[in-house]
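Practice problem: predict the structure.
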Amino acid sequence: MSKKFELPQSHIKDLLRNNHDINIGADAVRKCQEHLQDLKIKINMEISEVMTKENRKIIKEPQLKKALNRIGIETGFNFDLLRLTKADMRRLLEDNKSEYMISAEAVIRMQNVIEYYLRSIGDIAFEYLTKNGRKTMNADTENFAFNSFNQKKAEFNLDKFIKKKAANSITNSRKIIAKNEKKISEKKPTELHPNNKKRIINDEKKRFNIELKNNSKITLSELEQYLFEAANILRGPIDKADYKS
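Answer:
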């Protein structure tokens, strides 16, 4: 069972306040400690899986980033002045201390990650309090900010996933088009005359440009459908005998 992890209350208050003119209640600090404990468990579980898979004994920054990314935590933030101490971060990773060594760069990366985590929750809470004419963050406010932060994080990761999938679909479609263009070039002129091929391609380009103009956004499924249709057009008629092994 994971040992209870707590940061010094003064550190949590400073980071949640994040230079905003708000008060941080003791119950908000306790609620934040609970969230940090849950986060510690998730991080250590992912680190163990990454380290086992890669058969490593030293937690370095690349392995830590992999573990954090697997639970949707951004790792690209760097602060000039860090409020949390290296000892704090080693205690956060202490579940693995007996099994793995922790590199200095991994500890520094963890400092930046947790500071970003707490500062972000503080920023969301400040916006909420300002909107409602309040000055004190209590447990409910912290919980609201925590859930909002996780929702934004999930939306960001979903957006990254969709963009990556779209990029992969485009790459695969380009490969199909290139392959079929090669087949077309090897066919007899009567099968698909170059002028007809050029006309079809130009017509499809015009149609696609009109669709993009009329629709400011295109869904992933629509993009995939269009690209595969283009590939089919470029491929031309199929002779089943050509595909018999």
